[in-house]
TrEMBL record:
Residues 101-213 form the Phospholipid/glycerol acyltransferase domain. Residues 292-326 are annotated as: Disordered. This is 1-acyl-sn-glycerol-3-phosphate acyltransferase. Pfam families: Acyltransferase (PF01553). Signal peptide: none annotated. It comes from Nocardia amamiensis. Residues 309-320 have a biased composition (Basic residues). InterPro entries: Plipid/glycerol_acylTrfase (IPR002123).
């Protein structure tokens, strides 16, 4: 299974707000999540995307974050940077209507979904237990999240098929190919399995660099959902933060080609460039660990020679995951 060494030692301490501000933010979050189902039903289908994006940005604001979008897809002299509410923000999209796009990015925490949806609404492949989370679970169901079970590798082909069907229908689907959360300064390898959905359907792939910055513009790890974190402790840390910025950088679109492994590497290069992970990527290309059982990666050809790797130490096994290994 994909694993991450990130833990409490990775988390930053930044400026915080008082108890009253936290309470006001929490009330705002509850109001947004409770009214969204009604707005979803009452809004005509043709205007639903605009409403959904507005709600996502409102929710991000209630969490105490501003949105910054950087579009690196255009020529250098036409690239746009805009904060929430800026005039240049509206035209930025992952893709055009009725054309499927696979949006791929590294995974830091549960706020990633809100930040990405603030650019343009999209569905997600996400950890199955998110559907049971308070408030966010209902929102996940309305967003038609595709659930994935970390421990059940046999369900992976079905998830890939579901993503492919949604892409073929012209939808935008966001995936986190690392397979688990990292702190934001360190990151893992993008696993190729979910990229197969783009290869099968010919859908374009949009690499996205997602970062969180503090009020001084310095990258911070406050939203990271790692180690022994619970949803409650993570939410409390986010709600107490002051002046955070969610920065979404759209890198040049990648065409799927015919090799999911090569596509995964291209997207990883587009998102990470020459930057190296602080912890180093835990990349075992041939084997996946599941509890005490080691199973061969289903993406490896059946006639490939068997290669055995040493088992990883239990202390390195991550505890947070939303996407499949391969």
């Amino acid at each position: 299974m994909p694993s991450s060494p990130c833990g409490p030692g990775c988390l930053d301490s930044i400026d915080t707000v008082g108890t009253r501000r936290v309470a006001a933010r929490l009330a705002g979050v509850a109001g947004v999540l409770l009214t969204y189902p009604v707005a979803h039903v009452m809004t005509p289908r043709g205007k639903r995307e605009l409403m959904q994006r507005g709600y996502a940005r409102l929710l991000l604001g209630c969490l105490g974050m501003r949105l910054r979008i950087v579009d690196n897809r255009a020529a250098a002299d036409e690239r746009g940077v805009a904060d929430e509410g800026g005039a240049a923000l509206a035209p930025v999209r992952y893709g055009v209507p009725d054309r499927g796009v696979l949006v791929v990015t590294g995974h830091i925490g549960w706020t990633d979904i809100v930040a990405l949806a603030s650019v343009q609404p999209l569905g997600f492949v996400a950890r199955a237990d998110m559907l049971d989370w308070p408030l966010l679970g209902k929102l996940a169901k309305l967003m038609r999240v595709i659930p994935i079970e970390r421990e059940s590798l046999r369900e992976l082909p079905g998830v890939v098929s579901a993503v492919g069907a949604r892409l073929a229908a012209g939808e935008r689907i966001g995936v986190f190919p690392e397979g688990t959360t990292w702190c934001g300064r360190a990151y893992g390898t993008m696993r190729p399995a979910l990229f197969q959905a783009a290869v099968n359907t010919g859908a374009a792939v949009q690499p996205v660099r997602l970062r969180y910055l503090d009020r001084h513009g310095v990258p911070c790890t406050v939203p990271a959902f790692v180690g022994v974190d619970t949803f409650a402790s993570s939410a409390r840390r986010v709600l107490r933060s002051r002046g955070m910025i969610a920065e979404v950088v759209l890198e040049p679109v990648q065409q799927p080609g015919s090799d999911r492994r090569e596509l995964a590497r291209r997207c990883e290069t587009a998102v990470r460039g020459v930057e190296r992970s602080r912890h180093g990527a835990l990349d075992d290309p041939m084997w996946i660990e599941a509890g005490h059982t080691r199973v061969q990666d289903p993406s490896v050809a059946a006639d490939a020679p068997e290669v055995r790797r040493p088992r990883r130490l239990p202390s390195l096994r991550g505890r947070r995951s939303t996407a499949a290994a391969r």
